[in-house]
Amino acid sequence: MRQSVFTWLGLAALVLGALATPAQAAGNAIVIDGSTTVGPIAKAFAEYYMRQHPGISVTVSESGSGNGAKSLVNGTCDIADMSRFMKDTEFQAAVAAGVWPVAHVVAMDGIAIVVHPSNPVQEITVEQARAVYTGRIKNWSELGGPDRAIVVVSRDTNSGTYESFETLVLDREKMDGSVEYLGSNGAIRQKIQSTTAAIGYIGLGFVDRTVKALTVNGVEPTRETVAAGLYPVARPLFMFTNGYPDPGTPVHGFITLYLTRKGQEMIEAIGFVPVTSY
């Protein structure tokens, strides 16, 4: 996955003829749309950036990674939050519209597989999780738990988290028809909190004491295991811009926050893993 990311980054750099759009260079507002996983990072950055720059307005919407890509292509946002890399079709649509997507890897994230805290099951393998989501395993007793039907919950198909899970866990197999789809990490967590027989998956930054994260292939989903490359269900988180923003513009100042000490502190506080450290 990482090789694909950096291959596309190189290709994007080659096609850039201009660094920023006129709106980025002259505007006093930054519009952000996309991933609900990256959303908490964008919101934390927005609050901090507006405190440091009172004349700049930053708005953050969370409509999903796919819609973030569409917004960037349509010119309705300056930054597209995405919890997956841009698809070939999205990149081609962008280029056809005169938009040159540049990916900024702002953090790393683990996708935690979570259950209700009362569930006695503590661990799962990637193969078992695939069997649960494709319908081959339907009862908790098959995983060492109680004799109860598993309530399987997934992110909606427009979600970057869904697509990452589909690649990393399902190996592109189709989910069973009984799977329930929800629109955000928060909705998944709420479903798990209220449903003792449920299983779902959420970004690492959304794990708290109200749900229990299972070990996957014997590895706990933590910032340390993600940073060390040990946790098997992990992915980079992106912010995409149209071209590389001109230094000194608001978009440039915002998009490079993840490289600063303060930005890294915010990323860690939310529960994600910085890509660099001071």
Keyword list:
two-stranded parallel sheet; phosphate ion binding; Phos-bd; D-Maltodextrin-Binding Protein, domain 2; 2 domains; 278 residues; 36% helix; 9-stranded mixed β-sheet; alpha/beta; globular; disordered N terminus; phosphate transport; PBP_domain
Alpha-beta classification: alpha/beta
How many DSSP H or I helices?
A: 11
Alpha carbon gyration radius: 19 Å
Largest sheet: 9 strands, mixed
User: What sequence of helices (H) and strands (E) makes up the elements?
Assistant: HHEHEHEHEEHEHEHEEEHEHH
For the residues shown, what is the average pLDDT?
Answer: 90
Work out the helicity level.
25-40%
- CATH homologous superfamily name of the largest domain? Periplasmic binding protein-like II
According to DSSP, the number of beta strands is: 11
Distance between the termini: 26 Å
Pfam families: PBP_like_2
Family: Belongs to the PstS family.
Function: Involved in the system for phosphate transport across the cytoplasmic membrane.
Protein name: Phosphate-binding protein
